[in-house]
């Protein structure tokens, strides 16, 4: 591939990332912050979007919100749904979403409500960088240093703050943990960098666990395209003064609703992007639930979080963010970023993955299981098309996944062995192996680049038309016609 072709090939991914609307929020100054015990403020809310309180109330429960200040001064929100006296369960969302991920569908559909019905005390947390992270005591959100965090800080500061808050309020020593995607990675970071927190986990159920990644030959071309260009994209965006990804505003909410819900001709483009990034399984989406959930996407994170995930894919290692030799030496005390020692993760753990998840694979999950010290269950969801987001939005998840999760947590509480847990699972032991997808012999990466470019050009133009003041079109030189980027399957 020529140098000019390589430069051109960077465009789809750059626009794809920018399309998630990397916008600055106004500077937020904080002269006071409050102890979690007496929340004198309310969490942020957005027009035309049901709040955590309203989502909980719609499900028949009251939400209690706690502002938690981390050890390094970040303000985060923690939500208690209901007021059950049973064992506490902390649920941690994935990347680009927030705590709402767990309760948008309602009773008999969302895992959180199943847990509440079983008597568990459900808590939903929000990592730094999301829309629920309004300020830091040290830096305003317009300051570059505010966004200089990765999974390292999520695991070392955010999760411990949530866990300590819950245990202190409940006067208990342990809780259950449920994580999805980023929520699994930060759990591994916490337990390996602060191993004393293993003792505070009664059991962890980790869906779509991300530490090790599929081998290069098994990686989906769309994911490989983004991962291999992430370093370049990060440099370009940071030079432009952009340090975050996907800030939630009224403008972005309206754009997502209009483009991915109301407009039938563009809704398919959004579903195409979802399939490329998660695994194609749109037939497993309840369209009404999907339409309601879409505006909650783009909850925000830092570019460094995305870059660290990309480095997992390009190196095959689960390690701290690589900032370059000089910055590494300053931050970690070594020229290379240190690997996370998964042998230190000793909390009882269940790993659940999907056969059609482009971000994980059977081999990557089994490799992870071999390093963890107390794995009770390694299980694929018994649906060969089950993908990354099906874990929380899949139409069949309440039937083929959530009953097993409830049973696993119940069994962990009874200190049952792995074999005993297997016997009690409601869905059959899964023997399906990951499907071997045969891509066309013509260069599949080029084909996927064309599709990414076509989709992002069209969606970026739509955004520019709806928001004339936006400079996205000018920034990426999209002064051309759609026909030039026409893509057909």
Structure, described:
There is one protein chain. This protein has about 500 residues and is an alpha/beta fold. It is built from 18 helices and 10 strands. It has helices at about 5-20, 50-60, 110-115, 150-170, 180-195, 220-240, 250-260, 265-280, 285-295, 305-315, 325-330, 360-370, 390-395, 395-400, 400-415, 420-425, 445-465, 470-475, and strands at about 65-70, 75-80, 90, 120-125, 175-180, 200-205, 245, 300, 350-355, 375-380. The strands form 2 sheets. An 8-stranded mixed sheet has the order 1-2-4-3-5-6-9-10, with helices on both faces. The model is unreliable at about 1-35, about 430-445 and about 470-489 (pLDDT under 50).
Describe the structure concisely:
With 489 residues, the chain is α/β, with parallel strands linked by helices. 41% of the residues lie in helices and 11% in strands.
Sheet with the most strands: spatial strand order: 1-2-4-3-5-6-9-10
- The run of helices and strands is HHEEEHEHEHEHEHHHEHHEHEHHHHHH
Helical stretch tally: 18
Structural class: alpha/beta
Give the helices and strands, then pairings.
Blueprint: H1 3-19, H2 52-58, E1 63-69, E2 75-81, E3 88-92, H3 111-117, E4 121-125, H4 151-170, E5 175-180, H5 182-193, E6 201-207, H6 221-239, E7 244-245, H7 250-262, H8 264-278, H9 287-293, E8 301-302, H10 303-315, H11 325-332, E9 349-353, H12 362-371, E10 375-380, H13 390-393, H14 397-400, H15 402-413, H16 418-424, H17 444-466, H18 472-475
Parallel strand pairs: 3-4, 3-5, 5-6, 6-9, 9-10
Antiparallel strand pairs: 1-2, 2-4, 7-8
Helix pairs in contact: 1-17, 4-5, 6-10, 6-17, 7-8
